[in-house]
Amino acid sequence: MTTFDYGPIEFYAVAFDGDRPGPAVLKAVDDLVAAGTVNVLDLVFARRSPEGELEILELSDTIDDGDVPPLDMAGLAGEDDIAELAAGLEPGTSAAIIVVELLWAKAFASALYDAGGAVIAREGVPAPIVNAFLAEHAD
After folding, report:
1. pTM of the entire structure?
2. Residue boundaries of the structural domains of the chain
3. Which residue of 14, 20, 90, 98 lies most exposed, with the fewest beta carbons within 10 A?
């Protein structure tokens, strides 16, 4: 069986009011890593000034105590990726741009590859929409 060094990865842009997300965001990411759900390959923050300028902040720029957690591939999200993901960011808001390896899907990706299969489309639905829909259609 094929064994990949990495599983599938996903890029996320998660918007927040204000100029940067709070420490709870890093805690939530830490919890996912500790549970073995994801491996964080890159994490940067972007903020759009009230004037509309986009500023990119490295993780080390956002942590006050200088204790920056190690990332597997810091810099994987390039400036073009970040600009594209942050394109909808409103003035006065910020976003966490996170690149994660989906550890739960690593073995599945290997099995698909060995079987000659390939993922040809993938669609995500945000949790608030899923929960609202299911609550509306619950018996």
Report:
1. 0.79
2. 9-107
3. 90
> How many other C-beta atoms lie within 10 A of the C-beta of residue 46?
22
Overall size of the chain counted in residues: 139
CA neighbours closer than 13 Å in the CB half-sphere of residue 21:
21
Cβ atoms of 27 and 40 within 8 Å: the answer is no
Max Cα distance, the chain (Å): 53
Instruction: Tell me how many helices (H) and strands (E) the chain has.
Output: 5, 4
CA–CA separation, 26 and 69 (whole Å): 10
Q: What is the pLDDT of residues 37-96, one digit of tens each?
A: 999 888 888 999 999 999 998 766 655 555 555 666 667 888 899 999 999 999 999 998
Half-sphere CA count of 115, side-chain side, radius 13 A: 9
